[in-house]
Specification:
Blueprint: H1 3-12, E1 18-19, E2 25-26, E3 28-31, E4 34-37, E5 44-46, H2 47-53, H3 61-66, H4 72-79, H5 82-85
Amino acid sequence: MNIEMLWKNIQLCEGEIFKTVRGVEYKYVVYNDYLLINDDKRRKITKSSLQEAITIENPSPSKIQQENIWGPSYVYGIITDERIKGF
């Protein structure tokens, strides 16, 4: 999946509940080219970070963290969710 398709699906699912691997629930809000997790301005995931994460072979939170991407559990929860990758 390319980043533009992914981003479009992310925009469509704004405000819905997502879960980390451990079951922690969160929502996000889309602002320009980044997401705010739980509408917290300190918890930002950029579109470029998501683009980098989808290039990781067999992504996992630990592999995403190794790439120095902020919020690996949130990123993983988004990029592997059927609503995002399966639209």
